[in-house]
């Protein structure tokens, strides 16, 4: 039994040889070691919470940095696309040909002349829909006084 106590004291007090140390000296060193241990154990909870808070803050900061970097990259891409759109060069356009009793036919226009023709056709088709309306046809045209429109037609 004495050897177990001696080994425990030797380990706790870090005394190399029990034969050279007195019992009172070993007990004093053990008391000092216990007080240091209890002080460390008391601070352990504070250290743990401090460490967890620091990690949480670092993770939040990391998330903010990632978000900022994503926003910055998106803004750069949008800025780059805006610059490309300001150039005003269209490289590919689809022309729609209306066929009676068949679905419309779409073909790619690659030359400048074809693109101009397709754009003019689409504008005329889109903005002249009212010319086929009831107010432009007889007898409503004369009733509502669209004489100016009749001259244009």
Structure characteristics:
two-stranded antiparallel sheet, rod-shaped, 5 helices, mainly alpha
Descriptive notes:
There is one protein chain. With 153 residues, the protein is mainly alpha-helical. Helices cover 67% and strands 7% of the residues. A two-stranded antiparallel sheet has the order 1-2. Helix 1 (2-13) crosses helix 2. The longest helix has 65 residues, at 23-87. The model has no long low-confidence stretch (mean pLDDT 76).
Q: How much helix is in the residues?
A: 55-70%
The helix/strand class is mainly alpha
Largest sheet: 2 strands, antiparallel
Total beta-strand segments: 2
Low-confidence runs: none
Shape assignment: rod-shaped
Could you give the order of the helices and strands?
HHEEHHH
Q: Can you list the strand order of the major beta sheet?
A: 1-2
